[in-house]
Specification:
Number of strands: 2
Number of domains: 2
Number of helices: 24
Shape: globular
Strand order of the largest sheet: 1-2
Order of helices and strands: HHHHHHHHHHHHHHHHHHHHHHEEHH
Distance between the termini: 82 Å
Radius of gyration: 28 Å
Structural class: mainly alpha
Largest sheet: 2 strands, antiparallel
Strand content: under 5%
Helix content: 55-70%
Length: about 550
């Protein structure tokens, strides 16, 4: 028995951790306890050197001294302030009106707003709860199938997991030893593609099952002009003019690539806001306006979050700010937006601060427990066991990626994304690097995969968040007075299944098309190094005069 324990210490240690987690014990204390217990067992068996434990204080201090993780409380605070200041409500109302009578319009609005909230909050719970409270009653009021409505809301909320400034991407970059900015830039396009896949699903449902995703009735459409039109032409003209202005301002710039796009969009946003302000002032003091009510409302509602996105992500992408500095600016920007909307109060700040402190403490304690576990695991050569196990898989890089993603997909049924990031990623990263896999690409693939941990029935946290705000009993709709049925847990679970499948498809797309992520490296040089010829000009050297020989 002793020989068996010595030979299989690492796999037994890993299996023990999984069993304890499945029993429901807190992740932070499970990690620390398993690490310390197996350290004592290893010392007794002569398999673990006691002096390894001397490195434990340094490891704990390293967690507390990690500047990268400081971005987590900043982005959490920013998201909570925005969620409580009513930005999600304004966006959902305006974008829902914008899509109007289009079949499935409310579903498109939820997906669009979910992506926008993801790029400003980075907090899944805030996105799912706010959209569940605001949009679910409206979707049920106008006849949406409950499975479609709940699935779209839960899935759109989880976009905050993969679209920067996602908290899990910060942790992923830290665990893989890579730049958070590179991880953000690499994940941006896959996040937008995933949102587009969600919208494609909503389009397919609205075409195949029209009653499951109807459009708004004409009487529910607001922001109409005096002639009865909706003023969409004015909005289209403003959008085109803003794009042209953004391009015009940057056409002589030496900036290229992603920086060019970011700065062009910023110029366009400022132009649209300036035009909307001039229109509002003219209408207020003279009664004349050149923009429709819909165009003005959409601009005033869209510009603040878009400006915040530039303030946070734009400055990170173009290299002006680090992620931690971007998070700090985002937190300050969220406070300014809340104050501008006259919705900022001391109670709101206190609630956001308390929630941020709780989440930050949760993350830190898990990370400290993970440090204790990994110290013992490395001491018993567990990293060697994992590396040999994974690098010997058939199929090379593709075989490794398929196996790892299948493993993470299964573990996501039982573990949340923080636990996966702190426990699994440090074990997988060295093996991926040894196989020549780009770690940013690898991190984005796993980030998309771990997003399913929020949607897996029956343990998905997004489903729990939505269940907490969805009506559990029949109720009377406050607008129509009609009696509405409750939303069952089974309907929420079945609504999530198609989106879990879409997320799995997205994992395959990121593996098949790595260029979606690899653009973070920038444009490669087109010069062939073999054609470079270095010519050194001949220089006529003067003769050296060493002088007459000397005698000793």
């Amino acid at each position: 028995m002793t020989a068996f324990l010595i030979a299989n210490m690492a796999p037994i240690m890993f299996a023990s951790l999984v069993i304890i987690l499945l029993l429901g014990y807190p992740a932070a204390f499970s990690l620390g306890a398993v690490g310390l217990i197996f350290a004592l067992v290893g010392i007794e068996l002569g398999e673990f050197r006691p002096d390894f434990l001397q490195a434990l204080p340094e490891r704990v201090y390293g967690v507390m001294n990690n500047d990268t993780l400081l971005a987590i409380p900043f982005f959490t605070f920013m998201g909570l302030v925005l969620e409580r200041s009513g930005m999600a409500e304004d966006l959902l109302d305006t974008i829902g009106q914008l899509f109007g009578t289009i079949r499935g319009g409310l579903a498109y609005a939820v997906i669009f707003v979910g992506a926008l909230l993801a790029a400003t909050t980075g907090v899944v719970a805030a996105s799912v709860i706010s959209m569940g409270l605001i949009s679910l009653p409206i979707m049920l009021r106008y006849g949406y199938d409950r499975r479609v409505a709940t699935g779209v809301i839960a899935a759109s909320g989880t976009l905050a997991q993969i679209i920067p400034p996602s908290l899990v991407l910060i942790v992923m970059a830290d665990q893989l030893g890579k730049s958070v900015g590179d991880m953000y830039e690499g994940a941006f396009i896959p996040g937008l593609v995933l949102a587009a896949l969600y919208a494609s699903y909503a389009f397919g449902v609205s075409m195949l099952f029209p009653k499951a995703a109807p459009g708004l009735p004409p009487e529910a459409i607001g922001f109409r002009e005096p002639d009865g039109s909706r003023g969409l032409m004015s909005l289209g003209v403003l959008f085109i003019a803003s794009c042209v202005f953004g391009w015009f301002m940057m056409r002589h710039s030496e900036t290229r690539g992603a920086d060019y796009v970011v700065l062009s969009m910023f110029n366009g946003i400022l132009f649209a806001f300036f035009v909307a302000v001039v229109n509002w002032l003219l209408h207020k003091f003279t009664g004349f306006r050149f923009l429709s009510a819909m165009a003005q409302q959409t601009t005033f509602v869209m510009v603040p979050p878009l400006f915040l996105i530039f303030l946070v992500l734009g400055t990170i992408f173009i290299g002006i700010a680090t992620p931690t500095e971007g998070g700090a600016m985002g937190a300050a920007g969220a406070l300014l937006l809340g104050a501008a909307k006259r919705r900022l109060s001391w109670d709101l700040i206190r609630q956001a601060t308390e929630s941020t402190a709780k989440l930050s403490a949760f993350v830190i304690f898990i990370l400290i427990g993970a440090r204790v576990f990994s110290l013992t695991f490395y001491g018993v050569n567990g990293h060697v066991w994992v590396e040999h196990l994974l690098t010997s898989l058939p199929g090379g890089q593709i075989g490794f990626l398929v196996f790892v993603n299948a493993l993470v997909f299964i573990l996501a049924f039982f573990l949340d994304f923080f636990e996966l990031a702190f426990i699994i990623i440090p074990l997988l990263g060295p093996a991926a690097e040894k196989l020549g896999i780009d770690l940013i690409w690898f991190g984005v693939i796993l980030g998309v995969n771990m997003q399913t941990s929020f949607m897996h029935p029956p343990f998905g946290f997004a489903l729990f968040y939505l269940r907490s705000v969805a009506p559990k009993e029949p109720y009377l709709d406050r607008v129509t007075g009609k009696r509405m049925d409750a939303v069952t847990t089974g309907q929420i679970y079945w609504g999530a299944v198609p989106f879990v499948i879409i997320q799995c498809i997205m994992v395959g797309l990121v593996i098949a098309f790595p260029a979606m992520v690899m653009h973070y490296k920038g444009v490669a040089s087109t010069i062939d190094p073999t054609t470079i010829k270095i010519e050194v000009p001949e220089i006529e050297m003067p003769p050296l005069d060493l002088g007459p020989p000397t005698k000793n």
